[in-house]
Amino acid sequence: MEKTITVIIPFLNKIVTTRNIEVFRKNNLVDKVILLSSNDENLGQDLTIITDNIKNTSTYKKISNNISSEYVLLLLSGKEVEPYDYMLERLIKISSFTKSAFVYSDFYEFKNDTIIKHSTIDYQLGSLRDDFDFGEIIFIKSNSFKIAVERMDAEYTYSAFYDLRLKISQREKIFRVPEFLYVVKQNDQKNSEDSHFSYVDPKNRQVQIEYEKVCTNHLKDINALVGPDFETIDFNANDFEYDASVIIPVKNRVRTIGDAIKSVLSQKSSYKFNLIIVDNHSTDGTTEIIRNYKSSDERVVHIIPERLDLGIGGCWNLAVQNRMCGKFAIQLDSDDIYKDENTIQTIVDTFYKEKCAMVIGSYQITDFNLRELPPGLIDHREWTPENGPNNALRINGLGAPRAFYTPILRKIKIPNVSYGEDYAVGLEISRKYKIGRIYHSIYLCRRWEDNSDANLDNEKINLNNFYKDRIRTIELLARMK
Question: How far is the C-alpha of 200 from the C-alpha of 363, rounded, in Å?
């Protein structure tokens, strides 16, 4: 049987790395095993590439110079893996049959004496997240690997693999095998909440700046880059009874809806505002709380949809199209509250100052009792006026609270879903219009057991990520068009 594969293994520790080398060295399809290490210790490998950083461009160029086989198999982190007996044959066959340059698969995790299924998701045009989950094993045609490396015209310290896979995706197919082809042993799994906010952690700032450069260059290569020249907004084009409306879609939030309503009605603003609550058929007492506030304050508009199939986006559309909606529609989730009584004033002032179609604020993460939780302030300072609309395609969210110039939102409309709806409309707005930012905290985001994104399992994370990748795919196609 022909030896057609070069295996690249990063050094993790002596025991794990030795086991990985032994597993692949004994396979008849493996031509050679290359170790990425800071020293030349002999663990049974055929060659050692000396490197102090396996994530930089220089390391990938060294790998490319030492590949002579048809395929390269890359272990991303060096964790211990146990391949299925015929994994390599399967990967070769699928790469050949599907004409795919880059192949990855589902896998198992062995943790705490338990085997756990870890599914991945299909790669799309819009899979631009730098944290896309490929698993531990990547299988690439060597020629495609070499061509991509040759096209790496910038030296990156942290993001060489990100650069590599984007460059491969520009010309060839990235293919997922929905089969569990290997086991990762003692894989450290991040809490979904930690992963969700990792890209806004200040200690990751330099890494994120570099990822942004890679993504921006990719968008330029595929003719999807948008510039800082935006359509102008005429705030006097429409007449509104109210300057602003706070919109709260809600279903069964009896523990929190009262706090949210009070935080709105206590606002001090020179602008005339109201509160539109879309009560999506609550059954736990939420409806009665809203009615009590409505009976004592004429600013409260209580809407119960006729339809039973509305997600959060559909509830937003119902509120925005209502004749009582003000010139600016401002978001408040039913779990959360405004930081103080100046939030509405600050947001509307920003609209007029920035002359923008959308304003996004900054918020603090707290527990249910409003005690701050890590990472604290989420201000999305990665957004810049020059490149924010492009970098928005790489990250997984735009921030909160979100506010919109109502005529624009009425025209665009929001997808009728309950996850990612705000991200979808934000991307579409950013393609044509300026987005204003507020970088100090004006909003408290409470984390508790009933949050829709609290401690998600792998299946739910995949569903969410797949949908956001789809949103990015749709937006990319619109920008490329």
Answer: 12
Q: Are residues 177 and 260 in the same domain?
A: no
Q: How far apart are CA 94 and CA 103, in angstroms?
A: 8
Rg of the chain (C-alpha set): 25
List b or e across 215-225, with b for residues whose CB sees 16 or more CB atoms inside 10 angstroms.
bbebbeeeebb
H or E stretch at 364: strand 358-366
pLDDT confidence of residue 199? 45
For the chain, what percent of residues have pLDDT higher than 90?
89
The model's pLDDT over 374-426, given as tens digits with 9 standing for 90+, comes to 999 999 988 998 899 999 999 999 999 999 999 999 999 999 999 999 999 99
Tokens 């909440």 — which residue? 193
Q: What is the pTM of this model?
A: 0.92
Phi first, then psi: what are they for 246, rounded to 5°? -85, 130
Could you tell me the pLDDT band of residue 1, with boundaries at 50, 70 and 90? low
Round to whole Å and give the CA distance between 346 and 363. Answer: 14
Task: Give Cα separations from 425 to 38, 130, 215, 285, 408 (angstroms).
Answer: 46, 22, 21, 31, 10
Q: Identify the bridge partners of residue 50 per DSSP, sorted by sequence position.
A: 37
Q: How many CA atoms lie within 13 A of 66 on its CB side?
A: 20
**Is residue 431 situated within a structural domain?**
yes
- What's residue 454's pLDDT? 62
Task: For residue 188, give Cα distances in angstroms to 74, 109, 131, 191, 378.
Answer: 19, 9, 15, 10, 25
Q: Which amino acid is at 119?
A: S
The kind and range of the H/E element at 352 are: helix 343-354
Q: Which one of 167, 189, 211 terminates a domain?
A: 189
Q: What burial class does residue 117 get, using C-beta atoms within 10 Å of its C-beta: 0-12 exposed, 13-18 middle, 19+ buried?
A: exposed
CB neighbours of residue 119 within 10 Å: 16
Torsion angle in degrees (nearest 10) through CA of 284, 286, 289, 293: -170
Domain count, the chain: 2
Co-location of 293 and 178 in the same domain: no
Residue with tokens 């095998």: 177
